[in-house]
Amino acid sequence: MTVTQPARPAPAAPGRVPFPTVDEVSLHCTDPVEPETVHIEIHFPGRFEPERLRTALAEAARRHPRFQQRKADSRWWHRRYQWQVTAEADVDPVTFRAAGPGVLEAARARTLTDCPPLDAAPPVRIEAVETDDGGTVLMATVNHTAMDGPSCLRVLATAAEVYAGVEAQTAPSSAGTAPGRTFSGGTGAKAAPATPPPPPAAAGRSGPARPARIAGDTSSTASSGAPGTGNGLLLLDLPAPRRTPYGATVNDQLLVATCLTAARWNRAHGVRSAPVRITMPVDNRPRESAEMPIGNGTRLTEVGFGPGERADAEALTGGAAPDPAAVERLLRATMARTQALKSEPSYPLGLSGVLLTAPVLPVGVRGALARTLRRAAAPLMSTTLLSNLGRIVYPLDFGAAGRPTAVWFSAPARMPRGLAVTAASTAGRLHLAIRYSRALLDHAAAVRIGELMQEGLAACAEPPR
After folding, report:
1. Overall fold of domain 222-388+413-461
2. What is the Cα–Cα distance from 139 to 406, expressed in whole angstroms?
3. Which stretch of DSSP H or E encloses residue 255?
4. Rounded to whole angstroms, how far apart are CA atoms 426 and 407?
5. Among 207-216, 296-305, 373-382, whose mean pLDDT is lowest?
6. Model pLDDT, residue 225
7. What is the tens place of the pLDDT at every residue in 26-38?
8. Three-state secondary structure along the chain?
9. Distance CA 317, CA 446 (A)
């Protein structure tokens, strides 16, 4: 079938682009044991036409040139790494898999283990896995050194426009709500938010104390004698939370639920109390715009929990369930912290990242410094990472294949954190991915972490007695 393509001039490819700070640090700290992949999993009710999908993706890459890039050759004495933007793909990024036992699970496992190489454009692989019920799952694996999940999703949204023969999809997402922005408040009806308390002087900033570490638990696989390697993944499909009457967003609730999960998990494993710190990516790119920059476009902020919550520690972690009044106090404090953090200008990896990647020393020397500093700073690394993409703002309407019924993302979960929680919502559901390092947790432990997350979210929605 011929794909209808609107007439428009080809965008000018920028040729060579120097590595930004995030890309360079990621490349320096690559670990083949725990690949730096982003997993994207989108479920559709219908089937795709293979050549039509390939043609649509090629046109989307033409409109977003940075999607089709590879790492240019370099030597250790060079001052910069560079991306080479290519006119054509070096490899076909799309593979089709027929339905069958274990096919979907195997494709999902490959997103955690098979990182697309950087020397062939694009650094993304997409498997279209047919399901027994007549649907299809698009399983994308992204090399995180090259780009992030929202960038890949933006390209897929453009591919959907081309596939369906539509110039622009401007309808709201399948959840039936207006487009939002990452970390803008999550899913659900917007109540008029009450004015939160004024932010404390150090809202969200990390103190000098070492943060809590997620207690390791591989007891269910310890008998096998085989050490865990790589990442594991647990996917949850939950009802989408709503804002609280006093204005706490879904993002605030996810932060508090993650904090409660870490604190209650550690208490159950006999780990002494320590401040929980959560790394939260913030993305201010206009995702609904076709001109959204492609690459790694988020900056990392840290939300700290600790001294302000000490008085409520027992109420939050000591009982069978967190005390609702204590949870509300924690939510209100978190609202102030996130408002302060998101309004503060900052560098993607802080000033230290900018200095570390300044083109003064050769890249080989900078790489050795980056790895040394990462090892030295490991004890001060945050407890976990929470990435909330919010509502999926694109229809992702692929014509006869339909619109998504579920969308999951997961970010790398390398040690010493060993745990990353990623959330996205569509069709009125919250799709939560819990990705973990097998050196820290086994599947049974991840299931329990998932249960604690659900209990934490339920506690955030429960009004105080």
Report:
1. Chloramphenicol Acetyltransferase (3.30.559)
2. 12
3. helix 250-268
4. 7
5. 207-216
6. 53
7. 999 999 889 999 9
8. CCCCCCCCCCCCCCCEEECCHHHHHHHHCCCCCCCCEEEEEEEECCCCCHHHHHHHHHHHHHHCHHHCEEECCCCCCCCCCEEEECCCCCCCCEEEECCCCCHHHHHHHHHHHCCCCCCCCCCEEEEEEECCCCCEEEEEEEECCCCCHHHHHHHHHHHHHHHCCCCCCCCCCCCCCCCCCCCCCCCCCCCCCCCCCCCCCCCCCCCCCCCCCCCCECCCCHHHCCCCCCEEEEEEEEECCCCCCCCCCHHHHHHHHHHHHHHHHHHHCCCCCCCEEEEEEECCCCCCCCCCCCCCCCEEEEEEECHHHHHHHHHHHCCCCCCHHHHHHHHHHHHHHHHHHHHCCCCCCHHHHHHHCCCCCCHHHHHHHHHHHHHHHHHHCCCEEEEEEEECCCCCCCHHHCCCCEEEEECCCCCCCCEEEEEEEECCEEEEEEEEECCCECHHHHHHHHHHHHHHHHHHHCCCC
9. 19
> 């570390």: which residue's tokens?
356
- Among the CATH numbers 3.30.559.10, 2.40.10.10, 3.40.50.2300, 3.30.565.10, which is that of 16-163? 3.30.559.10
Within 8 A by CB and 6+ apart from 14, the residues are 65, 66, 85
Mean pLDDT, range 132-147, rounded to an integer:
97
Six-digit token string for 44 = 């559709």
Asked if residue 366 lies in contact with residue 127, where contact means CB atoms within 8 angstroms, the answer is: no
Decide if 40 contacts 418 (C-beta within 8 A). Answer: no
Torsion of CA 288, 122, 29, 424, to 10 degrees: 30
Q: What residue segments make up the domains of the chain, in order of their start? A: 16-163, 222-388+413-461
Residues in the chain: 465
Q: Is the pLDDT assigned to residue 201 strictly greater than 50?
A: no
Task: Find the mean pLDDT for residues 73-96.
Answer: 94
d(C-alpha 428, C-alpha 249), whole Å:
15
